[in-house]
Amino acid sequence: MKKILVFLMILFVLPAALFAEGQGETGSNPVAAAAQSYFADYPGSRIVPASKVFEEIDANADILIVDIRSAEDYAKGHLKGAVNAAWGSPALAETLNWLPDDKPVYISCYSGQTAGQATAVLNIAGFQVSSIKYGWNRGITNTEGFESYVETAANKTPASSGVTVVPAVKTAAMDYFNNIKTDAETPSNIIPAATLKEKMDAEDPLVIVSVRTPEDFAKGHISGAINIPFGENMQASFDKIPQGKKVIVYCYSGQTAGQTVGVLRMMGYDAASLNSGTGTGATAARGWINEGLPVVK
Length: 297
Prior knowledge:
Blueprint: H1 2-22, H2 30-40, E1 47-48, H3 50-58, E2 64-67, H4 71-76, E3 78-79, E4 83-84, H5 90-98, E5 105-108, H6 113-124, E6 129-132, H7 135-139, E7 150-151, H8 167-178, E8 190-191, H9 193-201, E9 206-210, H10 214-219, E10 226-227, E11 246-250, H11 255-266, E12 270-274
Parallel strand pairs: 1-6, 2-4, 2-5, 5-6, 8-12, 9-10, 9-11, 11-12
Antiparallel strand pairs: 3-7
């Protein structure tokens, strides 16, 4: 009789569990649960202006800056005290072994977009990470007095921190960094505006998600996009996003879309962000609207 009951439980419970996992539900999946908590316990944008980082450097605050630009660009100049763990290199995955969990960590990239992905993945793993707004090219070097906060001497990465990360989450985070897609269409999980327009014209099966505010979505959005505004508890609307299709996320400049992509990919979605979003003054000629591409109301 017990064997029959066990068989019936497997027959009915297992398919339901597999279905839930395939839909990105947390279930017993610790990675999905950790990813969903990113927005459920959201303290704010997790994007800080360079001026705030400068203030903390002046105050000798106990912080850590991780520069994820290439080793070559890091060597040309980086923020004082910053260590290098280049995007797309094994060094970035290794941060899971030495990042501290008891101090703020600031991520610097070129534009803030890949730093957004890194910020999401590392917070999911349990670290206190924020990205530096607009990165090196658009943020740091455009902030008054930045030259005083730049050095060229390399800094050693910290020793092993001894921080315990949930094993499944650590594996997923390291896999994320070690297997960043570099295909022609979505290098670094980012798609150029012109490429997205070509795919739309070819009627490729895509799901386009705008994480801008409802007000800005109403003023004009990419045709066919759904609106899931960025911020606290946005994960509650992820059930609007079907599995099995390429998901393109866009915001204003690519930074919050980068965070959203990090979360979605940790949940199993094939997601990429639109390069520079719709575009802002800081993104110059890049971005969907800045490049003159159409929107609908």
